């Protein structure tokens, strides 16, 4: 596992809430909190599912971002996390 994600805060969100999640990520990083944020950590060709599960298991804190978007969707990766 990369050191970048070890003991970091993991943000879980619905894709429609990406802008809000990005703002939360930026605020946490500005406060010197290590954040594993998929948009800055995942690369093309990565095994996204495996990498995300690994980071969830290793994170210091799992933060689900709950919104009307997450409540309205019964499918999607957010529910699995």
Secondary-structure element order, as H and E?
EHEHHEHH
Total strand segments? 3
Task: Indicate the CATH class.
Answer: Alpha Beta
- Write down the CATH topology: Rossmann fold
Number of helices: 5
The chain-level structural class is: alpha/beta
CATH architecture: 3-Layer(aba) Sandwich
How would you characterize the largest beta sheet? 3 strands, parallel
Count of structural domains: 1
Termini distance? 18 Å
Q: Which percent range describes the beta-strand content?
A: 5-15%
- Poorly predicted regions: none
Characterization of this structure:
There is one protein chain. With 81 residues, the protein is of the alpha/beta class. It has five helices and three strands. It has helices at residues 18-30, 38-41, 48-58, 68-72, 77-80, and strands at residues 9-12, 35-36, 61-64. It has a three-stranded parallel sheet. It is globular. The two termini are 18 Å apart.
Secondary-structure blueprint:
Blueprint (H helix, E strand, L loop, with lengths): L8 E4 L5 H13 L4 E2 L1 H4 L6 H11 L2 E4 L3 H5 L4 H4 L1
Parallel strand pairs: 1-2, 1-3
């Amino acid at each position: 596992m990369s050191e970048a994600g070890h003991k970091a805060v993991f943000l879980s969100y619905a894709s429609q809430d990406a802008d809000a999640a990005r703002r939360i990520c930026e605020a946490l990083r500005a406060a010197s909190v290590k954040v594993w944020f998929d948009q800055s950590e995942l690369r093309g060709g990565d095994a996204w599912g495996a990498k995300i599960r690994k980071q969830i298991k290793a994170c210091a804190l799992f933060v689900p971002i709950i919104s009307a978007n997450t409540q309205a969707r019964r499918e999607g990766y957010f529910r699995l996390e």
